[in-house]
Amino acid sequence: MATGLGVRGAGVAVLGPAGRSLITGRSDSVGFLLTEPQERFFEDPNFNVLLSGCTQALAAHDIPLLLMLAGTKDERRRITRYITAGHVDGVLLVSSHSGDPVAEELRKAGVPLVQCGKPMGPGSKVSYVAADDRDGARDMVRHLLSLGRRRIGMVTGPLDLPGGVDRLAGYREVLTEAGIEIDERLVVSGDYSRASGDAGTERLLAQAPDMDAVFVASDLMAQGALAALRRAGRRVPEDVAVGGFDDSSAATEATPALTTIRQPYDRISAEMVRVLLAQIGGEDAAAVILPTELVKRDST
Length: 300
Hints:
The chain is of the alpha/beta class. 43% of the residues lie in helices and 18% in strands.
């Protein structure tokens, strides 16, 4: 019969993982909770990079990571019940939209939690690790302006996610600083999918045919933007310069390769794990914001 006890040497009992969990009341595992539909997990390379980085960081502490996908309200309810029943010691939460109650429910239940990206709600006490989305957006728009582009469009991310809000804010701030009036015909929303980047760029070309650059709030959406520009007969970067965000594999696989804003996913993953393990150990909530970097390639 398995007891969770390993025996090493005569009369010396050494606790294995199951035995330790019985004594400490811990599961010795952590959940990676993505509140997006399953197809988004497989389409968007950023999620896989974060998952891999967090898995590696936890492996150094001999802690397994459980992947949890919750794209619907019913799935989120079921997974919240599973988590609060004590099946994991803490949660790494990715892509939590405004109005999604999961983070606050877990926090109120006393579950150690770290969110990737800033919480949307005012006064939230949830720990988070985020790239500086607003500053990254400012760097991209300044770069496009430095190339002499003045009719700069934007395909935003979802505006119920902090990255979507902050990247749009950075775009607006730099244009205002440069004395360029914000033309709302040059701003459309997307959802970080390739299809929304394609559709959004089509709308921009219809609304503002004199657009000479476009800042697209993710590399995957920027791939869609490139497809829309090709169909319209616009050359990149000669007619329209294109900038993305993330520096994911989608940036280097694009044709032409994308100028983009690099998010330090290795550091984000490592910091999320560090902050979560500190919380599990009894420390208070913490916030970490990491710098981004402009990466120039052939699309600008």
